[in-house]
# Entry
Amino acid sequence: MARIGVLIEEKGGEIKKTHLGALTAARQDAVNEVYALLFGDHAEACREVLQRYGAEKIVAIKTPEPNPASFPEARAGALGLAMDAFRLDALLGVADQSGKDMLARVASLKGAPLVLDCLEIDFSSGIVKKSHFSGRTTATLRLNGRPWILGIRPNIAPEIVHPRKAEILTYKAPIQVSKRLVIREIKQGEAGGPDVSEAEIIISGGHPLGSAENFTILRDCAVVLGAAVGASRAAVDAGFAAHAMQVGQTGKTVSPRLYIACGISGSVQHFAGMKTSKIIVAINNDADAPIFGKCDYGLFGDLFEVVPALTRALGPVRSK
Amino acid sequence: MQIYVCIKHVPDTAANIRPLGGTDFDETVKFIMNPYDEYALEQALQIREKEGGSEVIAVTVGKESAAVTLRFALAMGADRGILVKTDRYFTDSLETSRLLQKAIDMDGSPGLIFTGKQSVDTEGMQIPFRLAALFDLPVVVNVVVFSMAGGTVTVEREMEGDVREVIEMSIPCIVGTAKGLNRPRCPTLPDMMKAKKKELKVVNRADLQIQKPIQTVELLELQTVPDRCRGRILKGSPENMVRELLRLLRDEAKIL
Ligand SMILES: Cc1cc2nc3c(=O)[nH]c(=O)nc-3n(C[C@H](O)[C@H](O)[C@H](O)COP(=O)(O)OP(=O)(O)OC[C@H]3O[C@@H](n4cnc5c(N)ncnc54)[C@H](O)[C@@H]3O)c2cc1C
Ligand SMILES: Nc1ncnc2c1ncn2[C@@H]1O[C@H](COP(=O)(O)O)[C@@H](O)[C@H]1O
# Structure
């Protein structure tokens, strides 16, 4: 049996679906004891959903600093101490930007083994799989020595209900808050719309979109699909789309249920960011486009005609 | 101020990586400087150009062949290079960061350390954090805006949901750079010639006097990810293709 802590991020008592997927990944083995770890005061508000997805203990971590979100070093310190206090064998989190930061800080403080962006985790053997070389190869890795710190790729583990009764514990971390690193401000970017790293459906545009205005074709379709809009690097570099929208090796890694690539050639670097999507649809006007060789469904045609047709076809279905 | 830049020698991202069984792969492919490390080096060079008296030192942990990438860093403008020589391609992140830390520590005293946000071969995303813990310095990665004034570094980093955080750190500190920070310069032929005369120190593991290698995370095997097969290609009028696609997504893929 292993005691696994799952780092849960919440906003005002709301928990992102990807984080419930992490709970499921920890719960895969019924013998594991699953601790949901969260900062702040919303443990009670989160109890219902956390226990539904398999948490047995909910640990509310408190720090002396009234505003710990501004001090990632203090948060990491507190999390590390909580792991000791509850003698956790492993800490699992979602490898999104904030998760990667926090997990790497904790692992470094502890000198503990860390693997981020895991695609598969076996808690009984400590063997995990992750991408190497921009998704061209899968590496099988073994973690030696405890505690293991693991980050799972967002959306790789679906959330599955495993009802438990969860008890809430409060942990007051006796830490000194260093002021050498402070988050001063949080700015909203220019991309607008839902974020690709969270989305279950993504519709992405490439360089042929030709302008920022033309991306409205995709945005309109995204609204009826309930999708987020992404972009290739060529589209971002040309100024047609915000950097936050970029999918690929230099952009975001996504695993939606459905990825629709419009006017995207299918470079290795783009695939590095979306090849773990469940279904890939490509719209391209070149019958020899590389993306047709690696998608599930290809639509041979001009995106400026096909995407609006898709929007029209979906519109009435969804509004019913 | 001494500015250290950690640079990794990696296969080109477009290279076809062929696993050869176990942890070996065909290393005859084209190698380059890890793309994110170019932003790190460029930032260091810009600081040196603005603030007189700074020195930029490029440091690599890698096999002997990694010297090529260090030379490239010298051609871009680094003053000196240090190669910590290893005999295997893959080293555990904790081990790599210990080697980097020790090599830097024995060489000088860092005012700033730049790294990339991740290496494109192992996609580890942890060396800057491990270095920060070993040096006991603050660290921020995924940095797309950087400025420095009076002992404080101010950076912006990209987070989820199209959010940017503005963060202040006291110097010395560690900065992990991302695309968008700057436009890395391309060395010219004369730069390449000049780089040949610059100092490139080779250090062996034994010279660093650290305990035996550790492997907290051990690579067992590398396997090719099979490419997705060619998909079903639909042709015809946009309306017909779309209707067929929606049918397939509902009935075959069962995702709508
Ligand atoms: C280190 C490195 C990192 C990189 N990181 C990334 C990354 O993170 N993300 C990324 O995307 N790229 C990345 N790239 C760039 C990548 O190699 C490609 O250059 C890029 O993905 C190409 O973008 P594109 O497909 O939009 O454009 P193009 O290559 O121009 O392809 C456009 C495609 O659209 C088709 N097309 C043209 N007109 C139409 C039309 N009217 N209707 C339908 N189809 C049409 C064409 O047939 C073609 O297939 C990286 C490159 C490097 C070297
Ligand atoms: N072997 C290495 N030698 C020098 N720098 C490295 C090495 N490995 C990683 N780095 C640095 O650490 C950053 C993050 O790497 P990683 O943690 O491997 O994703 C890279 O962008 C480099 O700047």
Residues A 206-208, 232-235, 246, 248-251, 263-265, 267, 269-270, 273, 283-286, 289, 302-304; B 13, 35 surround flavin-adenine dinucleotide (ligand 1) (CB under 6 Å). The CA atoms of residues 77 and 189 of chain B lie 13 Å apart.
